[in-house]
Write a sequence for this structure.
């Protein structure tokens, strides 16, 4: 009885897997993504990048949950955040994760960048992935700047005022950019709406496909890791080059002409020319 | 039908290693799953636990509601903008502030984009074998960290200024 159920379950799941594979190719795709060989020695070091991915995923998830209660108007913004912190179910937890993982995100981006820079991971053919990474960094900085104003408390409000004051010093474009962000002459309801739209729609919509591009390029060229992942291969390369050099000298000897230094040969050729 | 992959690189027999292909494949590999995924999972779990603990131990801050009429409130940027705020102190006055606030960071970001083309030496991945790039990188880190420390010490010494 149990044996028959077991066989039937195995057959049913095999049928399901084959059915999906035939229609979507998802099994082959999973094989391809999951079993890709990656460098072994510095595996712990390369968790920095995935830590960035994880914290930004937390941002997306908790951000969506915060939207359930948050109201982006000057009258209600602070009160809604207060409500999240005191009354909403798990509100403190959700906002806490959003806040703290944003801080971790900045720290991990810094560490990830440092790791890639000092191991030379941006070199050919991975230049474009570095470019995408820098764009992602700028977008995250923009997200953190716009997010600060949304709580509409004294800290966030005045820090944004100062931030935009600094931005208004940009040569040539400063005035236009700030007018666009403020939606008026001073920080007010229009500013909150715009910062909300930028923080919740514009920047996440830009960041999501770029994360995809970052991961696609990562997989396309493979994880570089660091030079110590290639120690044996570099040693073999140098060994082969050395042997080839020896072989070249030996081949020269076989031709009957003893090896002479460049200087020596040049002297002799010069002497012969003089003799003519 | 598909043959399950083992996650181990197939032994390449008699591969001739040249300067072009030396960095094509690491010496030792593990399968992304489960090897790397497991390590990523440990780190992610630790981060999530830290966030959960911190959100109750040190709740996300919320000061009193924004009051556009106050003139004496001293705003603080978030810690990752400390180095930028502190850097502005070195560009006093209206003539220099736009230089320090916008021009210098723009040049820096431009250089950041250009890094792969500024350092193109093909075989030199090791930080020691390309001292110029490494020294510049360390200098940038030192400047950022020192500016952050300066900002922290300023805030601790003058909490309301």
């Amino acid at each position: 009885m149990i044996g028959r159920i077991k066989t039937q379950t195995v057959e049913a799941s095999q049928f399901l897997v084959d059915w999906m594979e035939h229609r979507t190719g998802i099994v082959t795709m999973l094989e391809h993504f999951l079993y890709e060989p990656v460098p072994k020695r510095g595996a712990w070091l390369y968790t920095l990048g995935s830590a960035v991915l994880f914290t930004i995923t937390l941002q997306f998830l908790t951000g969506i949950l915060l939207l359930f209660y948050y109201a982006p108007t000057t009258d209600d913004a602070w009160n809604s955040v207060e409500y999240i912190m005191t009354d909403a179910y798990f509100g403190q937890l959700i906002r806490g994760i959003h806040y703290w993982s944003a801080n971790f995100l900045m720290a991990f981006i810094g560490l990830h960048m440092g790791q890639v820079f000092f191991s030379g991971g941006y070199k050919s053919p991975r230049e474009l992935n570095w470019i995408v990474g820098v764009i992602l960094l700028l977008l995250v900085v923009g997200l953190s700047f716009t997010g600060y104003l949304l709580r509409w408390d004294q800290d966030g409000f005045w820090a944004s005022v100062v931030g935009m004051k600094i931005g208004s010093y940009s040569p040539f474009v400063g005035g236009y950019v700030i007018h666009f962000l403020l939606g008026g002459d001073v920080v007010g309801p229009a500013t909150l709406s715009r910062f909300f739209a930028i923080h919740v729609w514009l920047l996440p919509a830009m960041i999501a496909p770029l994360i995809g591009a970052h991961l696609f390029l990562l997989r396309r060229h493979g994880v570089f890791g660091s030079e110590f992942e290639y120690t044996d291969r570099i040693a073999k390369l140098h060994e082969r080059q050395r042997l080839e050099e020896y072989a070249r000298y030996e081949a020269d000897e076989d031709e009957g002409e003893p090896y002479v230094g460049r200087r020596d040969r040049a002297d002799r050729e010069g002497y012969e020319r003089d003799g003519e | 039908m598909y043959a399950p992959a083992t996650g181990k690189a197939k032994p390449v027999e008699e591969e001739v290693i040249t300067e072009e292909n030396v960095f094509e494949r690491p010496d030792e590999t593990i399968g992304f799953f489960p090897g790397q995924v497991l390590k990523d999972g440990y780190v992610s779990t630790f981060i999530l636990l830290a966030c959960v603990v911190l959100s109750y131990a040190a709740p996300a801050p919320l000061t009193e509601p924004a009051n556009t009429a106050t003139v004496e409130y001293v705003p603080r940027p978030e810690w990752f903008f400390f180095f930028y705020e502190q850097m502005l102190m070195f560009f006093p006055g209206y003539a220099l502030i736009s230089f320090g606030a916008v021009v210098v960071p723009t040049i820096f970001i431009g250089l950041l984009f250009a890094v792969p083309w500024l350092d193109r030496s093909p075989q030199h991945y090791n930080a020691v074998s390309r001292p110029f790039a490494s020294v510049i990188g360390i200098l940038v880190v030192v400047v950022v960290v020192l500016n952050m420390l300066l900002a922290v010490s300023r805030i601790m010494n003058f909490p309301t200024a």
Q: What stands out?
A: Chain B has a mean pLDDT of 86. Strands of chain B lie at 29-31.
